[in-house]
UniProtKB/TrEMBL annotation:
<dbReference type="Pfam" id="PF00392">
    <property type="entry name" value="GntR"/>
</dbReference>
<keyword id="KW-0804">Transcription</keyword>
<dbReference type="InterPro" id="IPR000524">
    <property type="entry name" value="Tscrpt_reg_HTH_GntR"/>
</dbReference>
<dbReference type="InterPro" id="IPR036390">
    <property type="entry name" value="WH_DNA-bd_sf"/>
</dbReference>
<dbReference type="GO" id="GO:0003677">
    <property type="term" value="F:DNA binding"/>
</dbReference>
<dbReference type="GO" id="GO:0003700">
    <property type="term" value="F:DNA-binding transcription factor activity"/>
</dbReference>
<dbReference type="InterPro" id="IPR036388">
    <property type="entry name" value="WH-like_DNA-bd_sf"/>
</dbReference>
<keyword id="KW-0238">DNA-binding</keyword>
<protein>
    <submittedName>
        <fullName>Winged helix-turn-helix transcriptional regulator</fullName>
    </submittedName>
</protein>
<keyword id="KW-0805">Transcription regulation</keyword>
<feature type="domain" description="HTH gntR-type">
    <location>
        <begin position="5"/>
        <end position="73"/>
    </location>
</feature>
Length: 76
């Protein structure tokens, strides 16, 4: 029986696909953790974990006090 993809991975993969397709461009601001949690109907911890995964993949960068943005050279 196939296992469903973890919600944080699904969110991260959807955002990553938008970055790779050019829908989200370098320097674009991403929604806040709270906004992501609300739009995907998940707990804030799940949304935070999705952002952490994208950061680990070097697709996004955080700027304390300002927000999270698409990295200038995503995936490098």
């Amino acid at each position: 029986m196939p296992t469903a993809e973890a919600p944080y991975r699904r969110i991260a993969n959807e955002i990553a696909a938008k970055i790779k397709s050019g829908e989200l461009k370098p320097g674009d601001k991403l929604p806040s953790t709270r906004e992501l949690a609300e739009s995907y109907a998940v707990h804030m911890n799940t949304a935070s974990r999705a952002l952490s995964l994208l950061h680990d993949r070097e697709l996004i960068t955080g700027q304390p006090g300002r927000g999270t943005y698409v990295a200038e050279h995503p995936g490098r």
